[in-house]
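Chapter review: from sequence to fold.
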Amino acid sequence: MNSNSSQNILANLVNGDDRTIRNTYSSVFPKVISFVKNNKGSYEDAEEIFQDALFQVITRAKIKGIEIKSSFEAYLFTVCKNLWYKELNKSKKEVRNDGVFELKASEDKTMEAILYQDRWDLFEEMLQKLSGNCAELLKDYFKKVPYSEIVKKFSYATENTAFQRVFKCKKRLTELIKNDPRYRDLV
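The token string follows.
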């Protein structure tokens, strides 16, 4: 799928086209269910994540526009994955107290999700600007691949060499992100 058809799908979703909405559900939602269930979630969690992601993408498109360089389905699935990972991280840090609770406005949640996705998009774009070796190394690092495996895969002499290379690649990625004009709007 090319980016033109992705932009067409997005435009149809923004305009509320029922057929496009149904097609999006049938093509992406099953993958989201599988992903969420394989990562400590339920069908209901998948429904909520999918709805939030779809709403976020449409809202973001209306507010500031989105340029999708991959297939729309891949883009939406990535948004769903990011939202689910964020939800998992949040539940790790959450302290339960049944006596006290605070309701947050859904608008705050949506704007926060949009900001999070904008940050993720910038991160992914800058990761692609790194050398192929550096990008692959950081992908493995972020997936928490053990240094012993990284040494073998990239033919480094020692784990210390791999550690130093990861450090340099992370530093370069950070520089690329901070030098991008969008960075200031996202912090």
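Two observations follow directly from the output. Residues 99-105 have pLDDT under 50 and may be disordered. The CA atoms of residues 1 and 71 lie 5 Å apart.
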